[in-house]
Amino acid sequence: MIFRPDERAQSTLVGFIVLFGILVIAFSSYQAVVVPNQNAEVEFNHFQDIQSDFTEFRSTLVNSVGSNEERAVTFRLGTQYPARLLALNPPPVSGQLETIEEGDRTVEVNLADGENIATDVCETDAPTTNSLRYTPNYNEYGSPRAVSYENRFVAQEFRDGNVYDRQRLIQESSGEISLLLLNGSVSRASQESYSFDINASRRNRTADSRTVSNITIPSQYSAEEWESTILEGMDITATDRDDGRVRIEAEDGGALGNYNVSCAAAGLDRDPAFSPNPPSQDSSDDGTDILNPTDVVLDNIERENDGNDKYLDLTFRSVNSNATVTDARINFYNAKNEGQTPSNADLSDDTGSELATLTVGGEFEELNSPVEIVSDYTFQLDFDKNPGSGNREWFILTLMFEDGSSRQYFVDVP
Fold it and tell me: Where are the transmembrane segments (predicted)?
């Protein structure tokens, strides 16, 4: 009798090895693709949170002027990734919040006769201001570089360019140059939230308009950005100074124009270094906007059916006061597939009547008829290309209100 070797155990072993290899490949794919994509979404959501924190900071800063009360602000410097049973996460997200104090921080508003009126209206020989900047330390979401506040506007810095909200430093419509100067120092790197207080002075104004020749201010941003983007539409020219400041003057070499000049100072976790305090000004007149833009919030974003439609419904809510929208723009659109980035969108009211056609990255467009937001109100945006849905597709919509204030809304496409 001849005995042959039993090969059944070998086939079982081969099957186990094949199955184990499939599991290893599946887990490796999950670790290499799924986990980074999920973490990138967490980082994307955090970047939207920190942008909201800066918008709230700006509004709190404005509303603190003349209030005689400390106002607390909070910044979410980091976030946690979701817990995973087997897969590995990188270290939690952290970030650096700090004031920018390098260079000459002095502000000048020079009149036609050469006088720096800022020293009088700010009631100090050296009116100075700092910038506040947050730099994230993301592991996957590589597009954003920083978020900053300076000179009454918030800026988002991305690898392919910066996005600025509407500046309120030079207001041609109301004929005012409005200085709101930051004093004090902040420096914190953390994965947690960080809070500090704002202590603001009252606002002092010139009694009448003055002929302003030029303005020199400290800035993180170049003269080219001021001229082409931040002060877009104004007949100005900007020049970089060697001391970290930017000089703004009229394009034709004449005066910028006739302006009332106002000044207030705010200390970060301290009293302001100087305190404009007009003795004749009523304490209730703090020089803030009639409408606080944070009173109008984006409550809901909806997309019809299965996500194949080109339009979105955006529902806004006015919290404490009626608000009338007069202009709108789409500042920026971040698409997963650049070839599918919309170039324009039709904005309609809640009855379907077209209000304006907004060019992505274009200027403000005046609405065909102003829209009053009493409580809830829904706008419809109909894009020329189908917006992608899901992870990291978003755009920035800015609404301008009847009183001249404005607010940016970061819309995550569902």
Answer: 12-30
